[in-house]
Write the structure tokens for this entry.
Amino acid sequence: MLAVALLRTFCLILQSATVVTGMDAIHNRCHDLAATVRKHVRSDGEFATAIPGVQLSRRSQAGKPIHTAVQPCLALVVQGGKTIMLGAERLTYGVGDYLLVSLDLPVVSRVVSATAAVPNLAIGIAIDADRLASVLARLELARLGTDSAGGRGVSVDRASPPLLESVARLLQLLDSPADVRALAPLYHEEILYRLVTGPSGPRLLQIARADTPANSVARATSWLRDHYAEPLRVEELARRVSMSVSSLHHHFKAVTTMSPLRFQKQLRLTEGRRLILIDQLDVGAASTRVGYQSPSQFTREYARMFGRPPRGDLEAERKRTGASARVTDSALRVAM
């Protein structure tokens, strides 16, 4: 009995040591990735890089919630912390966590942990549908298992050391631009492989496979993104994605947490805000551009979503950013 007890104790110690070693590996790699981001980003904002589909982000203070529309991507936090809201659901992610967005979605993002000394640093990598299909075609799909997150279009998971190593190899190309064209596609596929064989694999598979409800919802959200200013007939949208109206409503809400009409409204108001704050369109022009027939209705729904009517929002943003003439695009966008 004593021998059995000692063996169990040894196994627990060994298991604990393995977990600590894995955490140390994640922490060390994130520390190295943060140094890479600091090397290439010297001021606050979101910055495209010489590597297609890769964006770096730096924020030196926590900020207010920012409404934005995002496309499929991986967002890895290497310093600080963020939250994201999809409908009424909130997800928090910090150092070593990655956010996976598997389809086009309107979300609310916020930096929650950042200071001048320790800014929030993040890496965004777009997910290309054709490249994902190529990776999936080379896998035994049965090994991916089932989606334990309920099919949501966003999720947060802990990055594995191999995934972090893959991201590090991709970012190393920033120091050797001549190699980007040849090697970046290979490293992108390596990252996708790590994603689809990790906890998010089943979700990506459901979105990519043409015969699944999640894929139909992805096609619906993509159509809404491209046609948000047009009148929406749910019956027509359901026909476009080969679903019944009731099935579309059910699966659309399961993936996005909202109805197609609410989804469209968020897209319209987010773009309307951009037109007012950045392009400096007046309320009437902006509301018409995004599909509203009534500027007063646009103003009411704008205030309900953003907490202020358009004019008050513009004045507050100018005061916050110190801009005397116009708000810049980087003041509104937060890298995912």
About this structure: The beta strands are 45-48, 54-59, 66-70, 73-79, 81-86, 89-94, 97-101, 105-113, 120-126, 154-158. The chain has twelve helices and ten strands.
